[in-house]
Specification:
- The chain is mainly α and about 270 residues long.
- The protein contains 13 helices and no strands.
- Helix 2 crosses helix 7 and helix 4 packs antiparallel against helix 10.
Amino acid sequence: MVYIILAIMGYNLAFIDNLASNLTRLVLICSVFISAITFFNLAGLFLFRRYLQWSKETAQGGKFKLTPAMFKDSASMVAIVAGGFALGLFGHWHLPYQTQLSDYVLMLLLALIGLQLRASDLTLRQVLLDHRGMLIAAIVFISTLPAALLAGWLLDIPKPLALALSSGFGWYSLSGILISGQVNALMGSSAFFIDLLRELIAIILIPLLMPISQSAAIGYGGATSMDFTLPIIAKSGGTQCVPVAIVSGFLLSLACPAFIAIWLSFYISG
C-alpha cells in the first residue's frame, strides 16, 4: 500500500501546471533551501539526541555499518515515484478521482497502523503526550530558522519571505497554496517543491537514518511524520516510533499554517 501511494504521488507530479516556466530560478531556490534545511535540521537532531532517551539508539549507532542492503527500501521507493511520474508524463490520461486517490489509500493505511498500535498495547495517552515527539518538533522548528535566513541571504530573498518558504515542514499542498496566493506563482511553486523534496528525501533517509538515530529519522519528515512517512517510519523503526512520529508531525502541522501566515504578514507589511 505504501508503494501504491508513492506511485500515485509520482503520477500526480506529471500534471503540475507551469512546471517548465521559470525553471532555472525555481531549481536554484529549491536547491539552496532544501540543502540548508536538511543540514540544519539533521545537525540539530543529532546534537540533541542524547536528551531524547532512545534506549537502543547509542548501541545501534556504535555498531552501524553502511551496507548495500540498507539502500534497497529507499531505492525501491524512489524508483516507484519516478515510475509513476514517467507514466503520467507520457500517458497523459487522468485517473478517476486522481487527486483524492492517494488520500483514500493513505487513510486506509493509517487505519491499519492504528490497529497495529492497539495490538501493541499502546495507550492513547502514550501516543498524544510523548515528550520525545514534542522535543523533536521543537528542534526541527528552531533549527529551520537559521536555515531559512542563510538561504534567503544567499538568494537575496527578504527574510520574512525566506522564513515563510521554510515553514511548510513538508506540507507541500498547503505551503504552495498559501504563498502563491499572497506573493506570486514562482514563490508558491518554490514552496511546493521545497516541501515536496523534503518528503522525497525523507523517503530515502528514514530507512538509512533509523539505525543511527531514530530521532533524526522521525524529525526530518517534519509534518509528514504523522501521515505520509508514518508507514515508512513504522516499517523501519517499529511501532515504538509511531507515537513519537505522530506527536512530532502533529505539532509541526499546527505550526505550518500559523507561521507561514505570520511571516507573510511581516513580508507584506514591510
